[in-house]
Amino acid sequence: MTQLIVNGVARELDVEDDMPLLWALRDVLNLTGTKYGCGVAACGACTVLIDGQATRSCSIPASACAGQQITTIEGLRTGDTLHKVQQAWIAAQAPQCGYCQSGQIMAAVALLNETPSPTDDDIDTAMTNICRCGSYEEIRAAIHLAAAA
Amino acid sequence: MGFQPSRRFAILSGLAAAGTLAVGYALTPFSTLGRARQIAAGDGDFMPAAWLRLTPDNKVTVFVPHGDMGQGTHTALAMMAADEMDADWTLVATEQAPADMAFANGAFAKGYLLGDMSIPQWLNGTTEFFGRKIAEFMNIQVTGGSTAIRLTGALGMRKAGAAARAMLVRAAAEGWGVPESEIAAKASVLTHAASKRSATYGEMAGRAAGYDTPDAPLKAKADYTISGTPRQRLDIPAKVDGTAQYGIDVRLPGMLFAAALCSPVAGGRLKSVDEAPARAMRGVSTVVKMDDAVVVVADNTWRARVALEALKPEWDDGANGSLSSDSIHAGMNAALDKGSFSTDFSEGDAEAAIKGAPRVVEASYKVPFLAHATMEPMNAAAWVHDGKVEVWSGIQDGLGGRAATASLADVPMDAVVMHQLQMGGGFGRRAFSPVLPSMKARHIAQAIAASKATGKPVLVTWSREQDMTQDYYREASVARMKAGLTADGRIAGWLHSFTERHDPPEATRIDYDVADRTARYVSDTNPMPWGPWRSVDHTHQAFYIESFIDELAHAAGQDPLAFRLAHLANAPRHKAALERVAQMAGWGTNEPGRAKGIAMREAFGTIVAQIAEATIGDDGRARITRMWTAADPGEVVNPATFKAQMTGGAIYGLTAALYGSITVEKGRVVEENFPDYEMVRMADAPRHEVAIIESGAKIGGAGEPGTAPVAAAVANAVFALTGQRIRELPLRQFDLKSGGKIARL
Prior knowledge:
The structure holds two protein chains of two kinds. By secondary structure, chain A is an alpha+beta fold. Chain A contains five helices and five strands; from the N terminus they run ββαβββαααα.
């Protein structure tokens, strides 16, 4: 049994030690907001926070996250209030198809936790997730908006 | 030029004639309105057209018969309906219309995928499923010309909104016993000033529902209050909190999860596979052997994948097992050498004009195959039960997908229930054809087979590797361009020879003044599966045409912008777009170490003039630092999403120009995942300034036109900077410092 703390709730999963966290979240816990994109940590669609660090959940076993605080897109809001990064994402109208945006938002939350007022260079360095729709300018604007909020 | 609806498009007055197949809102058959009401309307709801529902609580729901994959179509179409209706925008919501004929129209099948000239071959089979009448209507529509916004919006949504407004005004007038001319309708409220009475639209819905639907006049553009203003997209809130449901997210009671491995060679067959290793593994339900694939079904995706990896299937590669990119390109060149051309278009005598010109310029270009690489890999859930086939998937064309599913499952259309979910990217990849083998929805076929084998709903999710190696691709192609130049630097004769012609037919058109022009092509040069890819044939044709125009400009010793303008005396909109973008970019001046390239393409009714600014990185590769676009779509509905489509479309094109290449060895696609098939990311994304020119011409598309000119603008910028002419994509294979090739693709 693997013990996970997901969005503040303790969960017990009967999964193999090598099952990536991504599939444990999606198929076992039905937290489908975290997306599968490449399976090799190349695209960032599966990004979650593990103890506050942006982590590509497709390439880390669930068992390696036991006892750590895992935050997914579903756990970002506080009650009815969206996280300031989510609000900024709406204000900047960042998503197009939206599929990569959970991962983009989680990466941005981690960036802003570390660097509350990031420069464009900071954003270039931290935000390496792929958006196939090409919403990068809107994402950049959203991060600056969230930083100013 | 304004679009004049012909009488065939005149709407609604035939509604009273029950049972007749009249032409409804943008060709919705009237006989189906009753069915639409049955599906979507409750008691007391007012549904004046298949796409519009007003409920007593004053809320308006717009049923959109097109998929939205992020291009903002749902919001834009709702804006058009709400504007004519004078509805309060905050009370308007959209829903995906069911994949049901009740909500169909010609534009539905054709959608925003392709241009407006003719029904492409791969959709014709779809129309067959709908019956001959509809196919005829589609042909009527196509003659008129359409895209989602242009037809569904301009002739459907607007008409529906105007009719609803007229019926509500009549209801208020009759209810209050006053003339209709004294009723004001604004922001979902009806008022009669003289008697100080007012009611919400919802309160009048019941009375209005009893009326015949009138053919109400449309607003003049000057009276628009919603169209043309930037509005927040209605689909975005669900896309920032994880609640938007994509095909891959569907979860059904008792659902199983599957992984699939397809024949690595297109057209190959499964010879044999020992299922035992997978069957022995934890959580595995079954192994399904198909003609061209093995599918493992388990209680979660990971277990299905691990079990699939334990299998060692043997494949019969069939005829394509020795195919390679080199052999494909050699075949293309041989076909061009042989010269058995079909004529694309021909005006005047191009060859004679070139022969008579004092200078002749020739160049050959080449582009590779491209994958779509939607962020959400292909997936579908199916549940075969009680004589029905239910499918959940993200598809660009609901009815087409339903028709394709009926064909795959060998059941009638009526037995198929299609649940159309959000698409994590489409770009042409999520359009399926029941007739064109390359565009078969194989993941849907696999889900159906897996559900049949287990009796349960099954979600098949392709790995990224399957998605990339089993795509239907933007074709690789070769073009040979030849033109004459007069002594005073004008083009005399244009001869464009190329391989493979798909859609849209106008993708080879040139807007420049050249009297003698021919485009011709050879077909069937290779068996790689083809499918539409954002902007379709414009992607490479724009690269060929606009690169070659640049070459001609330099050969004539002229500035590339001035050369283009000099050949556009009869194309004022194109000229205006180029002049605008040149002004925005400061054409003619460059920062040290940077240079600009220009290109222009009209695609899907929108003219896009682009300038790219290039620099050379330390690694010798091109980097695009800034871009400018001036786009003339005639008219714009939602300027915010239009701009996002221009910048996003440009990134899609830039990824292809800089990095995109799918290669083939021994019949197998070599690139399997993003490390091999790199994408433009944040740090590579240029700053991009967009200007919209509303010339008042017939409204054009947004999703695809921005992709078309990028490669040429980039290659032309590289030439301006380095003097090295790029005639082969992608750019990453060239070291622009040494002038050599650094990677062989």
